[in-house]
Each structure stands twice: as C-alpha cells, then as structure tokens.
Design goal:
The complex is a heterodimer of chains A (209) and B (135).
Chain A (H helix, E strand, L loop, with lengths): L4 H17 L1 H11 L4 H15 L8 H15 L4 H15 L8 H19 L9 H16 L4 H17 L24 H16 L2
Helix pairs in contact in A: 1-2, 1-3, 1-4, 1-9, 2-3, 2-9, 3-4, 4-5, 5-6, 6-7, 7-8, 7-9, 8-9
Chain B lengths: L3 E6 L2 H15 L5 E5 L10 H10 L6 E5 L3 H16 L4 E3 L4 H13 L4 H9 L12
Parallel strand pairs in B: 1-2, 1-3, 3-4
C-alpha cells in the first residue's frame, strides 16, 4: 500500500501532536547548547501548519508538503524554520503531482529533503545537526528498498536509523549553529535538531505501520 | 541613489540600534532598512521581515545585507532567493561583524561607492583592530 495524500495529512497531524508532546523535551535539549527555543519553535510552526492543512487536504502530496514548508519558513524564527522549511519544500518538489508514494518515491523524497538541509545549512554528517539523523535514515531506507522490504519496514528502518544517528550526536563536537559557540562544552549533549528529525520520521513510520 | 543596506538581527532593538549608528555615519544619504526579531515578535529571524526590508531599500545600486548570527544567514539567503525573482538588482550578504560592518558600509555607500566596493570595505571590518595595541 503506497502513501496517499490522506496518509500524508495524518503524518503531518501526528508530527504536530508529537512535537507538542515533546515541546519541553526539545527545549531542554536545546537549552544547554542552543538558544532554548527549539521545542517552542517547532510546536508553534506545526500548530500553524495544522491551521493551513484543510486548504490542501484534497490535493496531491507535493502540494501538501509545499504548504508545510512555506508555513514553517514564515512561522519558525530559529534556524529550524529555514532548515525544515527547505526540507519540506524540496520534499514537495520530489512528490509534485503525486497521489501515491511507493518505496522509491519515499527514498527520493527523503534524499531531496536531506540535500536541501545540507545545502541550506552548509552542513555535512558529523557536525551534530539534523543531518546526522537524516543521513543514516536515508541509507537504511535505500537498503530496505533494494531488499524489497516493503514500505512499512522501510519507514521503520529509516526511523530506527535516525534514532541511532540522533543518539550518536551526543559525543560529537558542534561546529554548526549556536552550539558551535560552546566549543568543547557541546560534547555530551544530544542534538535537538537531530531529535526533532527522528520524531518526524518516527511519526511517518507510525502513521504507515 | 546609493547602495541600500539591510540590517538583520535576532533582536529588533539590536537591528534598530545598529541602523541608528550606521545612519549617523551616512548623514541621511543611504537607505537603511531593518529586519529584527521573529515574525510574531521576540528573538529570532523572519524571512518575511527580511524580504520586506529588501523591498524597502531596493534600487539600481543594489543592496548589502549585514547580519548578526546563526539562522540570520539562512533566513537571509531564503529571502534573497525570493527577492531576486522579482528584482533585477544585486544583493550581497556580508560576512562582516554587524556593528563595524554596518558603520563602514554606511560610510562607503554614502560617498557613492559601488556594491562590490561597499561589500569589500564592510568585510574588511574583520581585520580592523578594535583596540590599538602599541607593541
């Protein structure tokens, strides 16, 4: 069963719920190494997204994701606005006009989103950012696609790999974003952006389980 | 017309303060717009505010954007990408430290220098010694 526009809307709604539930957690993660607003920003951004969803709910998946991207850009004041905004806008281009996403489409969508994040943030793996969750997730999904593991398993493996990547940010030294000003003191903290990236991919796997 | 300046800061008050300082040096000859704080107020950056500031000082001599830190760079890049779709005029984003960069840019723009000249002078603010050491 492919991902439909209805699934996409359910995914976005689930992200909004999960980010709201994890608002304090994300803010706690962001406080020692950032400006302490990640949970608040993401919660606010996705609340605004939910308000806009009814206008695109019956459209193609690309249109839904485009609305998510443009809304995040205009409502999230921290780095996560331009970064997640770009991620969803690139994902929307990769799914433009589509009403069904199969395994290869999902891989293509995540690849486009990751490339967008890397370009926007000029980030590479190992710099304690969202990229460290998204990169292993993409690799795991590609592998699952080659093994014909099926969509549900592909999404779960991607989510699990993102979680592992997120945890692997703990010992890393931050060289991007506000955390980079802390130098060595950024070591020992889990990256909030990698955490929200995992939560979004987990929400997708849970939606399509 | 001179090169226009846009001051981007996470803080609305910081942006206005920098514009005030830079404006003093420009003697009213340079269009300076501010984009400070998040869309709904508070600390942060706003692509929409930056875009509005770019449009406010848009002109044939181009625009130099000076910014504070972090997401200001990404938000400005997004705003510039949208802006250049509708405006034929050049926009450069300065790597200069905000206060020194803005003051130098205001002086350079006020005497009628071109955008590349203003941008280069602002970027050189990195190497200006703030305290003269007598060694």
């Amino acid at each position: 069963m492919p991902i439909t526009p209805e699934d996409t809307v359910r995914w976005i709604r689930r992200i909004a719920v999960v980010l709201h539930e994890n608002r304090e957690y994300l803010t706690q993660l962001d406080s020692p190494i950032g400006d302490g607003d990640h949970g608040i920003n993401m919660d606010r951004g996705f609340k605004a997204v939910i308000d806009k969803l009814p206008t695109v709910a019956n459209m193609d998946i690309g249109s839904i994701l485009k609305t998510v991207g443009t809304t995040l850009v205009s409502t999230v004041g921290g780095a996560s606005g331009p970064l997640y905004g770009t991620a969803f806008l690139r994902a929307s281009m990769a799914t433009s006009g589509k009403h069904e996403l199969y395994e290869a489409d999902v891989v293509h969508m995540l690849e486009a989103a990751l490339e967008g994040v890397k370009a926007r943030g000029k980030a590479q793996p190992g710099e304690k950012t969202m990229v460290d969750a998204l990169t292993p997730a993409l690799a795991a999904m590609k592998e699952a696609e080659q093994q014909n593991a099926g969509l549900a398993r592909l999404l779960r493996r991607g989510s699990d790999a993102a979680e592992a990547g997120m945890k692997a940010t703990i010992p890393l030294l931050a060289t991007k974003g506000r955390a980079s000003y802390l130098g060595e003191r950024s070591v020992g903290h889990q990256d909030p952006g990698a955490t929200s990236s995992w939560l979004m991919l987990k929400a997708l796997a849970d939606t399509c389980a | 017309m001179t090169v226009g300046l846009v001051i981007v800061s996470h803080s609305a008050r910081l942006a206005e303060g920098v514009a005030e300082l830079a404006g003093q040096m420009a003697h009213g000859k340079v269009a300076i717009a501010v984009a400070g704080g998040a869309s709904e107020g508070g600390l942060g950056t706003s692509v929409e505010k930056i875009l509005a500031a770019l449009r406010q000082v848009d002109g044939p001599e181009g625009i130099l954007v000076l910014l504070d830190l972090g997401s200001a760079v990404m938000a400005t890049e997004m705003a510039v990408e949208v802006f250049v779709q509708a405006s034929p005029h050049a926009v450069l984003i300065s790597p200069a430290p905000l206060v020194e960069g803005a003051v130098i840019a205001a002086v350079e723009a006020s005497v009628g220098n071109s955008l590349p000249e203003v941008a280069e002078a602002a970027a050189s603010a990195y190497t200006l010694p703030k305290i003269n050491s007598r060694s």
